[in-house]
Protein: Aldehyde dehydrogenase family protein
Organism: Geobacillus thermodenitrificans
Amino acid sequence: MTTQVIGRKMYLAGKWVKRDRIIEVRDPQDNSLIDTVPAASVEDMIQCIEEAKEGARVAASMPVYKRMEIIHKAADYIEANDEKFARTIAREGSKTIREARKEVKRCIQTLRISAEEARRINGETIPFDQMEGSENRVGYYYRFPIGIVGAITPFNDPLNLVAHKVGPAIAAGNAIIVKPSTLTPLSALLLAEAFDEAGLPPKILSVVTGYGSEIGDVLVTHPDIRMISFTGGVEAGEEIIRKAGLKKISMELGSNSPVIVLEDADLDEAVESTVSGAFWAAGQNCIGVQRVYVQESIMDAFQKKFVERTNQYCVGDKQSELTDMGPLITEKEAIRVEHLVNEAVEAGAILLTGGKRSGAFYWPTVLTNVPEECRIAKEEVFGPIVLLYPVKDLDTAIEKSNAVNYGLQAGIFTNNLQKAYKAIEKMDVGGIMINDSSDYRIDAMPFGGVKKSGLGREGIKFAIQEMTEPKVVCFKLCN
């Protein structure tokens, strides 16, 4: 595909600006140049934060109906230009055009939910007379915006994950500065375009394109940034926590998601759901299926069906309506995944299908007999790899599911309500899907994990709670 490179501007405090230094945005499918974006400097980020201080004051004073109106208008703009947004996602990232269209729909919903939740930022009355001597006091608390939110977003959902930070921040009356991935900045800039067209006052939103190694520390450490909302890898998350100082932190750091399939499950449904959950967006999905624990009595049947369904996946051109899976985000990432698979096979794992790489493409891969000490069994692969394990019973499956340092989401397939509730109680995760894979989420639900999967919760209502603080008001009444 031929694209005219026009040189995109970044959105700095409500103004579209260019810079002499640029970052090339390339299609991982063929490494073709899509466009360029400015490489922001430290001075740009400092200026942005200074401007955002005024933006935070404007946002906090904006009436709720106006916030709602602007967010809805931004959603309307995306809806009117949905194919433009989808094509951008599919060009700069790993998603196929069908996957990209679904992300656009989710982004629209994320913004509409954000607008609606703006009217539900509620407080409540406090019965101060519950304490002796306070009989003549009455009061309440309400929630107020924290100020400036710094958001750092990854490449795998370059539009909707940004919306999950921008929508709640604006709904809550904050200013927000987004530092998107250098691999997929165009979708974030399109979101800024939507808010600009919707009439968002200047200085409330910035999308600053630049290298994290150059401008990230300024955003993370600056004392006027009152919250960092980060989605990405564990190592980067831990580094941010060490540097951030006294501010709120919200982190979604990925997982190594398990799914349990018991002998009473609907086998076809379990196979279809787990295959889709494993290979969506080329497996670059924080809640994607990585480990499947199957009861021994149905292991052979499940494995056969799983491999057959995996082999039906069409890998190829992201823009084709027929393609099920595109490339990984870079060839470097595909090579990393290839090394993990080869390492496991050398340690005794059995390759059932896949294990093939071409450039940034890595074919859907299924392994069994993977030693538990292998990195691929313990770490987040973030690629189209799934491991199948036979287990004796539910207790064993739960024990093995919990035996990693992650706990974002899990799934279990069973028609036994008692067993489902046992898994609900015993699995160390932030969310568990019954008769569905781990790869299920709606944008209104609380989303986050335990252990190294992160801190806090996203999902609009819950993100707004994180992005506001309660203020107590107490009246002492005259006798």
Observations:
- Residues 10-253+454-472 form a domain with the Aldehyde Dehydrogenase; Chain A, domain 1 fold (CATH 3.40.605.10).
- The first strand starts at residue 10 and ends at 12.
- The chain has two domains: 10-253+454-472, 257-443.
